[in-house]
Amino acid sequence: MCGIFGYIGSKPASSILIAGLKRLEYRGYDSAGICLVENQELFNCKSSGKIADLESKILNAKLPQATLGIGHTRWATHGEPTEINAHPHFDCKKEIAVVHNGIIENFQALKSLLEKEGHIFASQTDTEVLSHLIEKFYSGNNFEKAVQEAVEVLEGTFGLAIVCNKEQKIIAVKKGSPLVLGIGDKEIFVASDAAALISHTKRVIYLEDNEMAMLSTDGFAVKKFDGTIIEKEIQELKWSVEQIEKGGFEHFMLKEIFEQPQAIANTLRGRLSSNGVKFSFTLDPCFVKRIIILACGTSYYSGLIGKHIIERITGIPVEVDYASEFRYRNPLVNESDLAIVISQSGETADTLGALKTAKAKGAKTIGIVNVVGSTIAREVDAGIYLHAGPEIGVASTKAFTCQITALILLAVYLQQNKDDCWVDLNFLSQLQELPNQLQEVLSQAEKVKNIAQIIKTSTNALYLGRGTNYPVALEGALKLKEISYIHAEGYPAAEMKHGPIALIDENMPVVFLATKDETYEKILSNMQEVKARKGKIFAIVNSDDTLAKNLADEFIEVPFAVDLLSPIINVIPLQLLAYYVAVSKGIDVDKPRNLAKSVTVE
Ligand code: F6R
Questions:
Q1: Higher-pLDDT residue of 193, 422
Q2: Which domains are seen in the chain, by residue range?
Q3: In a mutational test of the pocket of ligand 1, which residue from 392, 599, 600, 601 has the highest number of ligand atoms less than 8 Å from its CB?
């Protein structure tokens, strides 16, 4: 949450900062600001609202043609999303400017102390203590030292970019919130996410916790907070500029939904053959007595499906926990446990916290992550990258289906290493069929769009599924609520009669996952129960299934797949449904209210 972008070089900084912030806007979009350094003076412009609002304000702001500056797009934690609370924040003398991603947990104590010493605060943010704290330690020529001293008293998480009016320099500081440097030709960038750097350079350096980088046109130096110099490796980004553009689609979310056949093929590529699954790590499955899957949100739901997959294929018991709950409940974990952490961004604060807890208790860890080089990817013992390409729409789509694909690969890998001869060739070939099957579902987008016109006026919706499709119901409901603001609940279909059935009347749309598996007959009975109470049934059904079609008011046909694979197919119409409902309600689907893509605060 919150995006930081900084630039030092020879080009006009202001337009580079705006372009960078636009790339980071998925991280927060309630207010934004920039600060430029020119002739020993700091110039700033801030605005509430989106980057486009800031951009138009800058046009009239008469800012200098500076070649050094920092910018920020905010997802509010402390203080409302007003212009005053927008970053950058300054000290009393306007010599220091700070942009921040994270939370300063001891800000209240620090603020009281600084106020007693005479500092005047302008905003309600936790961030502002930083600029005043640096001011307290700054004596006119010790910028770096002052930052070091300030950072030492901070508690919490922070990614920072700081400038000082007297220095042609940016100081970037990292503890808990991601920061990556982009190394250009006599120019250096700093950003919260490497995707924002691709149009400038593919050469990047990921900062680790407790590191700070001093950036100037002469180059950069990275040090530990205690001043020790660190040699950092420059890495090459693999993503292309095209991947982070909309490519003719109206929204990133729609593009990402349509990218799923290719994304899944990418997750499978090079890992799957008729001999089974190959990964670049080796893992002895014999030590694994139990698997714990840890994740948040959509990634948690793919973890719930992962439980079915792994238990069925390997016989190893699996628990799935919300990362935020796991980390604070002193969980029972030991050396024979394998913790699988799932995260699209690789930066989710709770998932990272849960990973650290599992590691500290002796578990081995595997990460299923999309963003290459992200913090979780670097912290785990072994990792599986999704290779889904950048996911920019706030609502997760392609990451979900690729996560399930990766969990299937991992389960097959574990099992084949336990039992040399185990390879279910039929299952593996069905897995390879998925991209084609997804293409078939996507070709029905127009039909889903029509169904969306019926649902868009509802205020509630129920999503029902069983077995591996119960988490799909949860995911379908989450997609609808987060981007269309319609209240939706996912339930195991059989649980409906234990309470939610009371909600059903002619105004309640009920979305059924009714494809053929072991509980199919029972789902049909649940559909009957809804029909008897005049609920409106929208069903995902197999193409050859007349029974389910007859029970439904509206249906979408999907190709048949075994129940371990069907979630990957069945979720597609639910993603499209949420998308078209939100679009028809005029909502900015890529940036729905109150949300941010990468949840780097607890
Ligand atoms: C929902 C959504 C969120 C994320 C969750 C975890 O569409 O995107 O629920 O799934 O915040 O994020 P990652 O996977 O980045 O850890």
A1: 193
A2: 3-237 (3.60.20.10), 246-441 (3.40.50.10490), 444-588 (3.40.50.10490)
A3: 599
